[in-house]
Each structure stands twice: as structure tokens, then as C-alpha cells.
Write a structure and sequence with these properties.
The protein has one domain: Rossmann fold (3-Layer(aba) Sandwich). The chain contains six helices and nine strands. The chain has a seven-stranded mixed β-sheet with strand order 2-1-3-4-5-8-9, with helices on both faces. Strands 6-7 form a two-stranded antiparallel ribbon. α3 links the parallel β4 and β5. The protein starts with a strand and ends in a 14-residue tail after the last helix. The relative contact order is 0.17. This is NADPH-dependent F420 reductase.
């Protein structure tokens, strides 16, 4: 169905790659010496927010015309006490400004890797991935590539909703870091 390139092979990158692989998608992980012309039509940024500037610097031209899935949570990981982007902005919006010819979608940032891999939250609630983006066509393509993955996708609106998604991700990370919830749990949606 689609060629997916994932920046990052950590827990999130592998969990998301597994979801895409359950369809007829081709998934590749980018390493530092990968050729720039090997990028897929959907690019997943499964790296810490601090790595984004370097990636955009190196691949900005190659991101034109692509769907960029940003799952970063711009949390200050030294304190776990604040986001490092202005209160009226989001990491996804800042990425979209730097690559205006790409379709940026905020997704997966309100999920933990364990809930993506198990496809369940709290043992019985199906994992739901919230997404926000300005292109209905790009969001439809993302949903289509994940339709056989066993997770739910929910459209939270246009890209300006990314700041609320990042706030939810920040709260969830803060709760897990302070051991009030498990990294294997997280927030779920009842429909």
C-alpha cells in the first residue's frame, strides 16, 4: 500500500513500524548513512523533539510532497515540568512552518509504545491514536495504511489541535514518570 520511512528505532519507532507492517506497507528505518532518496511517502518522526532540528536541516528538501507524522512531545525532560515550545504553539506547527510543502500530521504522541504494541489500554480498551492535521487527504492516507493494524484512529481536527494533543501527551508522560500510572497503560477513549 505505502512506503513508510521511520526516523528512530526506539520503542515507539518499532511499535509504530509493527502497526504499519500489519498492512501491505513497506517499512524502513532510517539510519545516519541512509541515502536521502530512500524516503517513503509517509515519514514518521519517532525521535526526541531535540533531534527534529537536525533532521529538518538534513532532509528539508526531501520532505517536500511527503506526509510527515510527528509524534514528538516537546517535554523538558530534565524537569518533566513544562513543554519547551511556546504555549500558543506546538512542535507539529513549528515543523510545518519549516517544511510548508509537506503535510504534517500530529499522531501517536498520546500513546505509549506498550499500548501500541498490545493494541489495548488497561487490558480491555482498544488503543486509539488521536491525530491532527490540515490535509484531509493526508489523514485519510494515514488511516488507510493502518486500517488492518487493530488500532482505532480518531481525527482531532486541524493542525492547531496539535498543541492540545501535546498537552495530553505531556500530562500522560508526567504521570508515568511520577509512577502514578504505568508506562504500559495510559489514556484511552470510550466511544
Amino acid at each position: 500500500m505505502a512506503k513508510i520511512t521511520i526516523f528512530g528505532q526506539g520503542n515507539m519507532g518499532r511499535a509504530i513500524g509493527g502497526l504499519f507492517s500489519e498492512g501491505d506497507n513497506t517499512v524502513s528505518y532510517l539510519v545516519s548513512d541512509s541515502p536521502h532518496d530512500q524516503l517513503g511517502e509517509i515519514i514518521v518522526l519517532a525521535v526526541p523533539y531535540t533531534a527534529i532540528a537536525h533532521i529538518l536541516s538534513d532532509y528539508k528538501d526531501e520532505f517536500k510532497g511527503k506526509i510527515i507524522v510527528d509524534l514528538t512531545n516537546p517535554v523538558d525532560f530534565t524537569t518533566f515540568d513544562e513543554l519547551v515550545v511556546p504555549a500558543d504553539r506546538s512542535a507539529a506547527a513549528l515543523i510545518a512552518e519549516q517544511v510548508p510543502e509537506a503535510d504534517v500530521i500530529k499522531a501517536f504522541n498520546t500513546n505509549f509504545a506498550a499500548t501500541l504494541s498490545s493494541k489495548k489500554v488497561a487490558n480491555n480498551l482498544k488503543t486509539t491514536v488521536l491525530m491532527a492535521g490540515n490535509s484531509a487527504e493526508a489523514k485519510h492516507k494515514l488511516v488507510d495504511t493502518l486500517k488492518t493494524s487493530g488500532i482505532e484512529m480518531m481525527d482531532a481536527g486541524n493542525l492547531k489541535r496539535a498543541r492540545e494533543l501535546e498537552a495530553i501527551g505531556f500530562l500522560q508522560i508526567s504521570l508515568a514518570n511520577s509512577e502514578k500510572i504505568s508506562w504500559n497503560e495510559g489514556f484511552g477513549l470510550f466511544k
